[in-house]
Specification:
The protein is an alpha/beta fold. The chain is built from 10 helices and 12 strands. It has 2 domains: 2-137 and 285-321, Response regulator (Rossmann fold, 3-Layer(aba) Sandwich); 140-283, Rossmann fold (3-Layer(aba) Sandwich). 43% of the residues lie in helices and 17% in strands. A 6-stranded parallel beta sheet has the order 2-1-3-4-5-11, sandwiched between helices. A 4-stranded parallel beta sheet has the order 7-6-8-9, sandwiched between helices. Helix 5 packs parallel to helix 6. It binds beta-D-galactopyranose and calcium ion.
Length: 336
Amino acid sequence: MKKVVLLALVAMMAVSVSFANGQQEDGKIVIGANIYSFADNFMNGVMKPELESYATAKGADIQVVDSEGQQAKLNDQVDIFITKGVDVLAINLVDPAAAGTIISKAKAAGIPLILFNKEATEAGVMASYDKVWYVGTDSAESGMIQGDMMVMDWKKNADWDKNGDGVVQYVLLKGEPGHPDAEARTKYSVKAFTDAGIKAEQLALEADPNWSTQHGNDKMAAWLTSSFGKDIELVICNNDGMGFGAITAMKAAGVRLPIYSVDALAQALTHIADGELDGTVLNDGVNQSRATLDLAINAAMGKDVTAGTAWTLQAASKAVRVPYVAVTPENYQDFQ
Ligand code: GAL
Ligand code: CA
């Protein structure tokens, strides 16, 4: 009899040990995740499906909810995940300045947290919890690569300087103001010209928190019919989505101006093939999704977050940064 009780006790202990290691009764890790908005081409079209299929491949359970562009909604979603007892959180901030709120919640619950795609902007916030990490990119790199492509092509195409003044008259479709990707892409894409000794003149810039095709279309259509419409020599887009809208607007107006974007979505590759887009930059959402989940699963199991993976963690920012790649009319087929 005593032996039976003892065995039951051992079995119970085994169960509680496996829970402490962050696993469901069936041995599966449960990941509570979100996308800041399912309306976003890149997040919904590339990252969400990869998060779901890679989680399945790794034998984990993931739930991905839509924060609908509202930070307050995301705060509530995180509370619900914590109440449900998820093993780890994988969070795409709506407001990159609101990381502190999410980190405090995870810390209070003792749940590890992987932030992805929108890097926290508040200084020191990543150091406020030992179980928070970031997966994304080096935002500046995308702007530099886009800028270098544009400078190279500008130099090759003397007729792009329509008024022959040696200055690039550009318009810029910017993503979410305050988003590290949007800020860095805006800055470094233009800086490439000045670094190459070419003057650049901004004719117009409009930002959209949703990085949307509709915004790209509306703004480009308005710019083309504005007083400076005929002066535009280059269209710089912080992402493909807005670029798609600008391409549609140009086609409707019967104009073809040099245009560059970032993300390398399948549709962007088609536009390059059709001669409607001059270049984009691969934002490797597949690997960003995989890194997010590799770190999340390791963290849930109490392991070193990069254990058994090829990811490198930058010590100061606690970040894994997946590289960007230039995509041009010469190499786009490699990405299809
Ligand atoms: C960027 C991407 C944009 C948009 C944004 C959302 O990395 O290039 O298209 O998805 O993330 O945070
Ligand atoms: Ca000019």
